[in-house]
Amino acid sequence: MKHRTWPRASSSSPFSSFPFPTDTPSSSSAAKHTRFVRRCSHSHPPPLSAAPSDGGAGFSALPYDVMAKIAASFDDPTLKAASVVCRSWWEALRPLREAMMLLRWGKKFKHGSPRVKQNAEKALESFEKAAARGSALAMVDAGLMYWERGEKQRALDLFLKSAELGNHAAQCNLGISYLQAEPPKTEEAIKWLRKASVGGNARAQYQLALTLHRSCGTKSNMKEAARWYLKAAEGGYVRAMYNISLCYSFGDGLTHSNQLARKWMKRAADRGHSKAQYEHGLALFSEGDMMKAVVYLELATRAGERGASHVKNEALHRLSAASRDHAMHLADSWRALPSK
Question: How far is the C-alpha of 300 from the C-alpha of 312, rounded, in Å?
Answer without folding.
Answer: 10
